[in-house]
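Lab notebook, design round three. We kept the backbone fixed and only want residue identities now. Task for the bench partner: fill in a sequence for the structure below.
Input structure tokens:
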């Protein structure tokens, strides 16, 4: 017997085709699953334990999904709540859920699965040899673990199963692997383990495995031998190519995928078109690991930033923007060194419109009409970063390309030109934690949410 998972989108906050969602509800799913986060946008969300997505947008989309859950009469699961899956991010989604339960008149059993790790306990685990580095991983020790802003462990299928076993209508999970929230129920019902994990990998980003990635909604049917994936938007199709290609997405190996408790091997997988929309896949295998390990992610404060932005439009300076920026950097470094130790700060001049993204790797040529000069200053505290920015300010506005020409005047797009960005966060762990029991590093809280 197949287990049917309805996946509305690759992530809450990105949107989905509502008509397709309701077609999915009418098809009788066993569970609705959606991801809530990612590390794609860097460490700030984990460092601050805040969502990068708009609360208003998430509330709007979650309202529709809560209505869909009520009509389907099945659990609704979200993984990696609030972008990073920290405890505060889970509670942020819980507040949204409670607000909507009151609005919609729903009475719910809500399970919160917490993934955040207490630094002192993790430091003890490190000292006991239960924390191991992946490749690459920053160097850490017990003292460094104590300086982390937030640390999360990535839950797997077992932790999601524990939450579902509580009888929850809605599961709000902290940091999870993208696949765990999809694979958990088919695995619990005895589906083929390789098919469950492979189908979850294909379905993790919704319709990204189809010819219309932005449509969002797909159905995943997992059974004893394989899985079938079907996009539900009118304009979307799954093909053997679009489905097989998803193993390349965010994955170091196109045939292997590591998860808590083992790894997926799709070397022998076979992809075939069921019709002009759906694809059937069989042949993947699940390989259990000798120990149960979960990945750890952490963020730490790496400094404080202040930025400035100036615009070069004079054709002479636009044409020689890199030479001007290099000369200005050398001048400023000498000026700053008279007041501040060189190892107390960093400064970058990025040329927006020239090479701001790739730097020295940029291969395109040609002169733009104007160039934005973004100065990024990172220091040990905000006051020092801003002090350096104020030193830079007049030279960013009036510094010449050569000594024997008149002072130019550039443009600041706003005043004051400097902007305090606050703390700069860096990822600080790429490690795994060995557990004696899958729930050892996780906590469940069950609440009855009544609209009245």
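Proposed sequence:
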């Amino acid at each position: 017997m197949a287990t049917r998972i309805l996946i509305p989108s690759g992530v809450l906050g990105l949107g989905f085709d509502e008509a397709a969602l309701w077609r999915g509800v009418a098809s009788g799913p066993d569970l609705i699953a959606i991801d809530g986060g990612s590390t794609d946008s860097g460490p700030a969300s984990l460092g601050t334990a805040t969502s990068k997505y708009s609360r208003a947008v998430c509330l709007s989309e979650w309202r529709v999904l809560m209505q869909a859950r009520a009509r389907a009469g099945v659990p609704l699961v979200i993984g990696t709540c609030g972008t990073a899956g920290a405890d505060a991010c889970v509670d942020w989604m819980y507040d949204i859920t409670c607000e909507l339960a009151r609005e919609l008149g729903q009475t719910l059993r809500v399970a919160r699965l917490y993934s955040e790790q207490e630094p002192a306990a993790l430091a003890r685990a490190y000292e006991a040899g239960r924390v191991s580095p992946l490749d690459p991983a920053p160097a850490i020790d017990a003292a460094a673990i104590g300086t982390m802003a937030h640390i999360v462990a990535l839950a797997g299928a077992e932790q999601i199963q524990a939450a579902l076993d509580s009888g929850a209508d809605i599961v709000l999970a902290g940091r999870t692997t993208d696949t765990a929230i999809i694979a958990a129920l088919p695995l619990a019902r005895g589906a083929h383990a390789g098919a469950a994990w492979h189908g979850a990998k294909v379905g993790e980003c919704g319709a990204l495995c189809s010819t219309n990635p932005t449509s969002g909604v797909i159905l995943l049917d997992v059974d004893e031998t394989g899985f079938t994936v079907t996009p539900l938007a009118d304009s979307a199709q799954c093909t053997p190519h679009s489905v097989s290609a998803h193993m390349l997405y965010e994955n170091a190996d196109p045939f292997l995928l590591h998860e808590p408790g083992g790894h997926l091997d799709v070397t022998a997988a076979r992809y075939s078109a069921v019709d002009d929309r759906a694809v059937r896949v069989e042949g993947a295998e699940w390989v259990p690991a000798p120990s149960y390990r979960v990945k750890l992610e952490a963020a730490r404060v790496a400094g404080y930033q202040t930025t400035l932005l100036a615009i070069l439009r004079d054709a002479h300076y636009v044409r020689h923007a890199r030479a001007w920026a290099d000369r200005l950097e050398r001048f400023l470094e000498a000026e700053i060194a008279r007041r501040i130790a060189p190892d107390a700060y960093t400064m970058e001049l990025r040329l927006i419109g020239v090479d701001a993204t790739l730097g020295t790797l940029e291969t395109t040529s040609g002169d733009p009409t104007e160039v934005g000069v973004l100065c990024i200053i990172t220091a040990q505290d905000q006051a020092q970063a801003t002090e350096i920015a104020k030193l830079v300010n007049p030279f960013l506005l009036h510094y010449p390309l050569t000594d024997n020409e008149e002072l130019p005047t550039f443009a600041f797009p706003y005043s004051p030109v400097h902007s305090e960005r606050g703390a700069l966060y860096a990822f600080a762990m790429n490690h795994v934690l060995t557990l004696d029991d899958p729930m050892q590093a996780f906590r469940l809280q069950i609440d009855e949410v009544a609209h009245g």
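Keep this in mind before ordering anything: Residues 73 and 169 are 8 Å apart (CA to CA).
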